[in-house]
Automatic annotation (TrEMBL):
This is MotA/TolQ/ExbB proton channel. It comes from the Bacteria. The chain crosses the membrane at residues 6-27, 110-134, 154-176. InterPro entries: ExbB/TolQ_transport, MotA_ExbB_proton_chnl. One of its GO terms (biological process) is protein import. It is found in: Cell membrane; Membrane. Residues 67-187 form the MotA/TolQ/ExbB proton channel domain. The keyword DNA-binding does not apply. The keyword Cell cycle does not apply. One of its GO terms (cellular component) is plasma membrane. Its main location: membrane. PANTHER family: MOTA_TOLQ_EXBB PROTON CHANNEL DOMAIN-CONTAINING PROTEIN (PTHR30625:SF11), PROTEIN TOLQ (PTHR30625).
Length: 208
């Protein structure tokens, strides 16, 4: 592996660095964007039970706030529910914007890696071909070993860049879709909470 990296030239260093960073981001986002962590059903069901039995208090609101990103959004709305529907909705939107920002964390760097690694590979290809033509100019086409070295450098960097970019791009698209799904789910729960608190909707007895 080291010989392969060495044969790829200096541009293999940023490509390898991008691959390590992309892997770290992917693993961290897989762990962070789990539905059981972002919007755990048990926390929501417990909240409905508290509301139905009129057991909601400051201590339980703090517990809800600390339980999950969705709990933080709902707690933000409940804290200001007494000030009316519009203030409650504004509080929910304020908390939701911060939560969404955290859910999208590191996705821009992952997208950047997916974009620049093929370009680094292409740059390596260009540099390798320049070396080939420089060798041809100096020694002609008789030195096949030197020509093969330049062509090998060009092919290795291209392959390495694409090998990093393709999974990074796939994961980037997947995580964007995952965040969208989580946001829709949290939005539905927030709307339901506003309607329940202000008497426009009954709590589902089975869910509660």
């Amino acid at each position: 592996m080291f010989e392969l990296l060495k044969a790829g030239g200096i541009l293999m260093v940023p490509i390898v660095a991008c691959s390590i960073l992309a892997l770290a981001i992917i693993l961290e986002r897989i762990w962070t964007l789990r539905a059981s962590r972002v919007a755990p059903p048990q926390s929501i069901n417990e909240l409905w039970r508290w509301i139905k039995k009129k057991e909601l208090n400051g201590r339980k609101l703090k517990a809800l706030q600390a339980s999950s990103p969705l709990g933080r959004i709902l707690a933000g709305g409940l804290i200001n529910a007494k000030h009316g529907r519009e203030i409650m909705k504004e509080s929910i939107e304020h908390e939701a914007s911060q939560v969404i920002h955290e859910l999208e964390r590191f996705l821009n760097p992952l997208g950047t890696i997916a974009t620049i690694t093929p370009l680094l590979g292409l740059l390596g290809t260009v540099i390798g071909m320049i070396k080939v033509f420089a060798e041809i100019q100096l020694a002609g086409v008789g030195n096949a070993g030197n020509l093969a070295g330049g062509i090998s450098e060009a092919l290795i960097t291209t392959a390495a860049g694409l090998s990093v970019a393709i999974p990074a791009l796939v994961c980037h698209r997947y995580f964007i879709r995952r965040v969208d799904e989580l946001v829709v789910n949290m939005e539905q729960e927030a709307i339901k909470l506003v309607e329940v608190v202000h008497g426009d909707r009954e709590i589902d007895v089975e869910g509660a």
